[in-house]
Specification:
This protein is of the alpha+beta class and 159 residues long. The protein has a single domain, classed as Aminopeptidase. The protein is built from three helices and seven strands; from the N terminus they run E-H-E-E-E-H-E-H-E-E. It has a seven-stranded mixed beta sheet, sandwiched between helices. It starts with 7 loop residues before the first strand and ends with a strand. The model has no long low-confidence stretch (mean pLDDT 90).
């Protein structure tokens, strides 16, 4: 896993890439353990949502090895949704999540997105802390997350 001296790179990759699929598989497995009830899990993300100007899927690598991923999908003309944020357990607490989120925000600005929203779960206190430190605030749940008792929805206005 990453060491302070290893360079972290973050780049766009196809959602279908093997490294992306491995990271998403690890994310899904972890969320399934935390949220055994299928009604409490929201795994959907399609290639169309993160391609051709609609969004982006990023993979972070440390020492060339994939350690994290995250996606941004356009919701409407000014709003983007952060999705599928995940950092491998051995790479956590080293700033990888912060750097990945900052790059997703940079990509959003390039797409003229002025507001970011996201959904996380109440059993993911570390994710909630990351988003709060990054300037996200809780909002009523939206879209597919409305009425989901385990969902925590947040937003951030981009300058």
């Amino acid at each position: 896993m990453p060491h302070a001296r290893e360079r972290l790179t973050i780049a766009s990759e196809p959602l279908s890439s093997s490294d992306a699929q491995v990271l998403i598989g690890r994310l899904n497995a972890e969320l399934t353990v935390r949220y055994p009830d299928p009604d409490d899990r929201h795994f959907e993300l399609t290639e169309a949502q993160v391609g051709d100007g609609s969004g982006v899927f990023l993979v972070a690598r440390s020492g060339g090895e994939p350690v994290a991923c995250g996606a941004l999908r356009r919701v409407d003309e000014v709003t983007g949704e952060v999705k599928r944020m995940y950092v491998l357990p051995g790479a956590r607490r080293g700033g990888v999540g912060r750097r990945l989120l900052a790059e997703l925000e940079r990509q959003a600005r390039l797409m003229d997105i002025r507001r970011l929203v996201l959904e996380t779960g109440e059993r993911q206190s570390e994710a909630i802390r990351l988003y709060e430190v990054a300037g996200f605030a809780r909002i009523p749940c939206f879209g597919e997350y409305e009425g989901s008792p385990m969902s925590v929805c947040m937003e951030k206005a981009l300058d």
